[in-house]
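[recover] target loaded
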């Protein structure tokens, strides 16, 4: 089964296309495999942008990083920014080591590489500056006045505050450890007086952890200072019962959290301006509340803001209102939904009474070109059922490296034109589901080779005509006449 979490994240990167040239300014260090470790070792605090030159989001981020780097170079102490072309073959070991699965990915590397955290802040210059200054300072700040409390706890973000009778001891230290570990995701503060906080019970003396959020119950208290228990509390309490997918930028952090969760994802797409929306919203929220903490996360999306998601999942406008469940193995879809039918359909899904939904382009009427076109509906016939050696490229139409590889694959196919044992094929992995074990897409293009006997190998060599041909010749099976007759049958 092809992994579906990575393509879900990757499709966000494909939403913007631009012809902007990707240029690194002198104030942003350019790193690669040869100088990366040395640079990391000598810096206490480093932000590294792992990018791909063809990525539209990377191209938009580049000038913002340059502006931020210019400002932060005069900070006391200076904060250094760097970039790595993670799509360059010579940097693939770095990309693997730092778990780079989408572009751009930004990592905060501290203490000479001893601490590595994901950057989860803004993508504009001023926002980057403010976020990095905060990340380079104390993990938790002290609230000493009501003004401090109002400044720290505003209505737009999640803030975690520890209330303590004294700022010392085992529980206070556990809170600081939590703050350091999760500081890139949340704002942390601590206080000796709960009366300085804008919401919640002001009579408590602690120790407690109070989480403020802009949704659901707004304030939640927790008293278990075991670090694992604290992390679990923060994860569950900071997740909306229903994540909203619309054009409001304030919802973007929660969307990222939703798509990164390992839970099964239920996604309801409705026209927010339509009359039935209120009924859908109310019923859906009640169902999500009932299922909270049971391995399923819930999202409601406005069709006006989710056209990219529609394209990614293979949905159409006439399907609305539509609910989709993606469990990282299969997808299940119920189009033209009525509010009162949501709960019964979810029960049918849990009882295994619904067939998975497979997104597929139409099967080509003619498929005689040198590189065969594979779609979900003919995948088995071309790749598995025919007794052939098949080299399959999984590509994205917007990917620059895929476009560069295309003429090379044409030449590879031409070189095997007289060898009926070998098939060169390609599938648009953004428009078709690949529902077979063994295929994993971490980036585009991804090449797999299936031998006539069924052996599956991923091609990771240089993308040249000669290297690909050598790989096929080395790994292909010779087909016997009996195999050929079986294939014809």
């Amino acid at each position: 089964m092809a992994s579906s979490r990575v393509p879900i994240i990757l499709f966000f990167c494909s939403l913007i296309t631009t012809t902007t040239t990707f240029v690194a300014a002198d104030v942003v260090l350019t790193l690669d495999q040869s100088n990366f470790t040395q640079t990391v070792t000598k810096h206490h605090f480093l932000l590294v942008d792992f990018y791909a030159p063809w990525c539209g989001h990377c191209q938009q981020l580049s000038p913002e990083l340059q502006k931020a780097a210019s400002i932060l170079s005069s900070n006391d102490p200076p904060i250094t920014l760097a970039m790595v072309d993670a799509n360059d073959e010579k940097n693939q070991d770095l990309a693997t080591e730092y778990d780079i699965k989408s572009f751009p990915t930004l990592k905060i590397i501290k203490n000479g590489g001893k601490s590595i955290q994901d950057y989860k802040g803004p993508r504009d210059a001023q926002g980057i500056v403010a976020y990095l200054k905060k990340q380079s300072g104390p993990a938790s700040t002290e609230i000493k006045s009501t003004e401090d409390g109002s400044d720290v706890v505003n209505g737009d973000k999640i803030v975690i505050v520890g209330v303590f009778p004294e700022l010392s001891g085992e529980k206070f230290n556990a809170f600081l450890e939590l703050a350091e570990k999760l500081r890139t995701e949340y704002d942390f503060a601590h206080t000796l007086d709960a009366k300085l906080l804008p919401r919640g019970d002001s009579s408590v003396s602690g120790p407690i952890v109070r989480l403020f959020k802009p949704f659901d119950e707004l304030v939640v208290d927790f008293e278990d200072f075991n670090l694992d228990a604290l992390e679990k509390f923060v994860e569950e309490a900071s997740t909306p019962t229903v994540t909203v997918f619309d054009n409001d930028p304030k919802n973007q952090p929660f969307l990222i959290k939703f798509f990164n969760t390992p839970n099964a994802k239920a996604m309801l797409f409705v026209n927010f301006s339509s009359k039935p929306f209120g009924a859908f919203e109310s019923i859906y929220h009640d169902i999500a509340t009932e299922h909270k903490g049971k391995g399923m996360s819930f999202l409601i999306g406005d069709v006006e803001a989710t056209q990219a998601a529609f394209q990614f999942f293979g949905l159409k406008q006439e399907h609305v209102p539509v609910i989709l469940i993606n469990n990282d193995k299969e997808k299940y879809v119920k189009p033209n939904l009525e509010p009162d039918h949501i709960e019964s359909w979810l029960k049918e899904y849990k009882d295994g009474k619904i067939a998975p939904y497979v997104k597929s382009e139409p099967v080509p009427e003619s498929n005689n070109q040198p590189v065969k076109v594979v779609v979900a509906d003919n995948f088995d016939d071309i790749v598995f059922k025919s007794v052939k050696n098949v080299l399959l490229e999984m590509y994205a139409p917007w990917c620059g490296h895929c476009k560069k590889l295309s003429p090379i694959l044409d030449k590879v196919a031409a070189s095997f034109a007289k060898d009926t044992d070998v098939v060169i094929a390609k599938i648009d992995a953004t428009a078709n589901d690949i529902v077979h074990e063994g295929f994993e897409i971490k980036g585009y293009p991804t090449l797999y080779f299936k031998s006539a006997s069924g052996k599956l190998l991923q091609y990771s060599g240089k993308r040249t005509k000669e290297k690909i041909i050598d790989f096929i010749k080395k790994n292909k099976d010779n087909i016997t006449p009996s195999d050929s007759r079986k294939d014809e049958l």
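[recover] notes: The mean pLDDT is 88.
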